[in-house]
Every structure is written in C-alpha cells, then in structure tokens.
C-alpha cells in the first residue's frame, strides 16, 4: 500500500520540479550572490570567532570562547558600543520627532516652496558620507574653520573650540553631523507615511468641529503608528551602524572618544598599521554586537506591538 | 426698552470683524512658518555652498580666512590639482565602473529571481521569500570580514569586480521583492499567449516580461547607482592594497589623511565627488523618492 502510494507519487513530484526547472535556474545567480555575500558571512563570523587567526591559511588555532571573553571584558569595546548606541539614541530622540514636525509642515499643499525645502533637506542623503564628513571637518577646524570664525566674530566664544579634536566635543559634533546627514531620508519616510492617510479623514474631523491641531493629535498621529514603527526600526538600524562618517573624520579618536563598534572591528581586522590582523577577535566583536542589536530590537518588540495594536484599532 | 434694543443692535456690525481678523491671521500664519523653515534649510545647504565657493578660491585667499562665499578671484587651479595630481580623474572612472557593475549585477540577478518567484505555484517559494525577509532584520554590519576572505579566496580581491560583488550581494533583497511584486501583477494570459506563439521561458522573460518592467528597472537602477556611488566601507576594505582602484569616497579619505591642509583642493575634490550624483538625483528625484517611499510602505 505504502509502496504503491510512493510509486504513484514520485513521478508527479519529479514532474512538478522539472516543470519549474527554468524557474530554479533563474534563482541560481541571486542564490549564489546572496548566499555567498549575505548568508555565508553571517554563519562564518560565528565560526571564525572561535579561532585565534591572522587570516593566513585556514583557521586552525581553536581558542574556544577566549575571544568572546576578551571582547566582553574589554572596556574599549563597551565604550565603542555605548557610542554606537548614542548615535541611535540621538537619531530617535532628535531626528525622528523633528523630521515628523517638518514632514507635517511640508505635507501641507498650501505651503509655498515646499519642494525647494524638501530638496534642500534631502540633498545630503544623495552625497557620499565620507566626503561631506570631511567637508564638515574643515568647517569645524579649530584654527581657520568657518564655525569658529563665525562664533568668535559674533563674540560668542573667546578661544576657538576644537570640535573634532577634543574628547568632550568630538562625539556630540559627529552625532550632529549624522543627524544632518540622515534627516532627509527620515523626512521622506514620514512624508510617505503621511500620504498613506486619506485626506478625507482629516477633513471629516475638521467638519466634525475638531481644530486642525486636534485632528492632527487625535486622528492623524494615531493612524501613523503602524508605519512609525517601521520607520523607527529603519532609523535605529541605520544610525547604530554608523561607520563612514567616523572613519572618514576622526577614525574613532581623539583617544577613542568617538570609537564606534564598526571602527573598532575595522581597527582589529584591516587597519594598515596593524602588525597582524586579528580576524577571529574582530569576528567575535561583530557577533557580540549583532546579538546585542538583535536583543535591543527584540526588547522593543513587545512595546512596539502594543503600540501597533493601539494604532491599528483607533 | 428702545435703548436696550439699540445697545443690542450695536454689536451686530462688529461681529463680522471677529472672523475677519481671524481669517487674516489664518492667512498669515502659514507664511510665518517660512521664518522657521528658511534658516533651518540654510543650515542644510550651507556646507554645499561653502564647498563650491571654496573650490573656486585661491589657496592664498583660503589661508587669509574670512566668511565670504564669493571668491575674490576665481580660479580653476584646484580642480586641475584634484583631477590630475590627486588622481580624482582616475577615481571618477573607478567609481563609474564600480557603480555600473553593481547595478548590472543587481538588475540581472534580481530580475531573474523576481520572475522565478512571481510564479505562485513554485515549490519552496514561501521558504525563499521568508529567508529573504528575515535577513533584512538580522543586522549584518559585521559580515565584512568573511566577505573579504571569500573574495580573496576567489582571487578577486585585486579588482573592482570583487568589491562590486560584495556590494551587490546584500543589496538584492529589496529589488527581488520589487520585481516579484511587479511580475506577479502581470496577467498570466500574457505569458500563456507568448507560449502559444512558441516562445520558451527565456524568450518570454527577455522579450515580453523584462520590457514591461521598465518602471521597476528604473527604480532599482537609480537606487543602487546612488548607493554604490556613495559606498565607502566595501570599496575602502577592497582597495587597501591597491590605491589604483580607489573610488571617489576612498580617494577623498586618503587625500584628507595626506594633504589635510589643502582645503581648496579638497573642496574641489568634494565637488567632483558629489556634483555628478546630485545632478543625477535632481533629474530623477521623483523616481528616487517614490522608490524609497514604496519600500517603506511595503
């Protein structure tokens, strides 16, 4: 009974697969690329992190959890992690609400020149982070930089501020540049979200006697919540992985005051002044960072889900 | 009695004045926002204006400092120096090559995969799409080391092709989903008609389906071209041993490290790096913005 079932089943199954042979062939290039450069590296990072390895030959020097122990016990790593986290926090606390306010303003069809404003705010998004970062480094130069010249001409400061060169101001300055750079994309996210809300709903609220502000607060904003969560996660991920800006301007300095996790990893794996790369250790740092990021995202999940439900039902 | 009536009547003509004044206020109020918006946006545009102005200033004028944005004497020297001495001419060619290669790889791989996955009856489709979406939520900023080692093992670490593959691989998810959604929306009758006319799978794809998907091709091309042009981490790591292959971003990084005082030269180099991509964006901004907006909504 079982054998006849299998016998009758197999040719049909095989035919099903054969019928789709071309489709599977079409999947091969993407599978190779994605598998090789996205999925394999995620697995390989874990594997390499158990070795003490300088990249010469295959990894053979198994050290167990030593790399992880070293990463978790390293004050420099936790400092870098904290700095990465501050980049995200600033994006969530400053950039996200400010961009929402501007999106609401610029979503008003009656506002003149709104396309020009939108364009101005979006310009930094299409430029290379490393390049604009260096332009900012020149603007913030302690000796002849435009910012210091302007501040001292206005009489606001007595001696010049070494924005990117002193341990107390370097990180806030870089965070400011990061917000400047990412603002436009967050604005576009919000504008896209606002446009999903039918105009009629806002107008109906106005006819029912709500003020424009009330309609915004009690009708439009609650409807934004489901998409707001997506935007929050996108912005969080982006700013947590800040690398280009820091590497191009301060390389984590002065005295590691602006070190973020990706520059930390870079330093142990690719820094040209390195005597021997420590791939295993760098991978362990990456894995710890990845796990921590995932944990933070998951910790947000219950809160977000509740908000999502609240938003979906109103 | 009559006096009270008079008193009652007098406010009547005043009444319309109230809403009237409010109307005027409502007319002015949106304009007041410009007082906030103009300085706010100037903050965003100023670095670009400074960059262009500094690129045309002489090095002497830059040394004297000052806040003027209009050069006293215009000079093209900075562009010459950046283009030839600092090799930004070569870097531009590298960046164009790199970006076009990335776009071609992404387009070919994602259009093909999207077409294959658009068939609702494909066995294993759900699993594949599930994996694609799941990887979007797994942070993969730390994958650079295995990627670098894999490319070295393939013997591609001394060409831009290796960097382009490393850049294109993780960038496939959104394009695949876009193509899949588009092809799934095309009526099956069209494919059936092509088959009746004797077209095979390949012919149907290249002659019928691909030409139809021009809007998606446009979005994917533009988004990936801009991302690849602005890429930094991947080109940096892959050109460490080979300065000839530097892209504009990496070239700028090294220029800053070596000639940190040549501000006018760097401003010119920054112009060379950013102005082409800004022009591309200005012409195609609607496609670009809609592409991003579409990705969020999905």
Automatic annotation (TrEMBL), chain A:
The keyword Amino-acid biosynthesis does not apply. InterPro entries: ABC_transporter_permease, MetI-like, MetI-like_sf. It is a multi-pass membrane protein. SUPFAM superfamilies: MetI-like. The keyword Chaperone does not apply. One of its GO terms (biological process) is transmembrane transport. GO terms for cellular component: plasma membrane. Keywords: Cell membrane, Membrane, Transmembrane, Transmembrane helix, Transport. The chain crosses the membrane at residues 21-43, 80-107, 119-140, 179-197, 218-236, 279-299. CDD domains: TM_PBP2 (cd06261). Residues 81-300 form the ABC transmembrane type-1 domain. This is Sugar ABC transporter permease.
TrEMBL record, chain B:
It comes from Jiangella ureilytica. This is Carbohydrate ABC transporter permease. GO terms for biological process: transmembrane transport. One of its GO terms (cellular component) is plasma membrane. Keywords: Cell membrane, Membrane, Transmembrane, Transmembrane helix, Transport. The chain crosses the membrane at residues 32-56, 96-117, 129-151, 163-186, 216-238, 263-284. Its main location: membrane. The keyword Acetylation does not apply. Gene3D superfamilies: MetI-like (1.10.3720.10). Belongs to the binding-protein-dependent transport system permease family. It is found in: Cell membrane. Residues 92-284 form the ABC transmembrane type-1 domain. It is a multi-pass membrane protein.
